[in-house]
Amino acid sequence: MESSRTNSKAYWKKNLRYLLILLVIWFLVSYGAGILFKDALDTIKIGGFPLGFWFAQQGSIYVFVILIFVYVRLMNRLDKKHGYDE
């Protein structure tokens, strides 16, 4: 019983680490690139639009969707590793 408790604690610790890392990436892309670093990014153009504007309007959404797929893949691996897969 103690080993299953240790296993579940390790599982949730790793899960929270994944969540924290992915949320920090999302924050940096959405808030950082779209607001804080907008002026520096606006010197680069994509399709005629400044990169800071692009991140604020489109880029953060794309990154969020990509992070969802990354999270699913990481969690599937973690589930298999700890014996919680289907």
Count of DSSP H/I helices: 3
| Distance separating the two termini | 21 Å
Q: Which structural class do you get from the secondary structure elements?
A: mainly alpha
Biggest β-sheet: strands ordered side by side in the sheet: 1-2
The helix content, as a percent range, equals over 70%
Based on CA atoms alone, the radius of gyration comes out at: 18 Å
Low-confidence stretches: none
Shape, principal axes of CA atoms: elongated
Beta fraction of the residues? under 5%
Largest sheet: 2 strands, antiparallel
Average per-residue pLDDT, rounded, comes to 88
Count every beta strand, where a strand is a DSSP E run of 2 or more residues.
Answer: 2
Structure at a glance:
The protein is 83% helix and 5% strand.
